[in-house]
Amino acid sequence: MPFAANANHLGSPPAALPGGRIISVDEAKALLDAKGASFIDVRNPINYGRGHLPQAISIPFDGSADSPGDKAALVKSLPKDKDKPLVIYSHGPTGWKSYRAAEAAIEAGYKNVYWMRDGFGAWEARGYPVKFGAERN
Residue 50's domain is classified under what CATH number? Predict the structure, then answer.
């Protein structure tokens, strides 16, 4: 069963990210302002186009545990510098996509992986800058 169809049966993602770190939208904003991190939006292109963090790269990710090809495509699309902070997000705290994307980055050897668990919805609710359009950055 595709991940999207199965998401409601998984419960909430874990409260910890082994090998990485969960950050708040405020911490993500500080990283954005410092211009020292790469931001990865794993939502679908339509949602990315409706609004995303400035500087975020769109890398749509299904998040299915049963889709190794999807995971490989995600990792191949990530920035090449595995030491630079990498902030990964999707819609919000109940989404497994961004958690699984962060896991994939950690498994691929990225050393500073941050999962913005509260996601784009919380970012937008805080009134932080939002960029619109479907370009990938």
Answer: 3.40.250.10
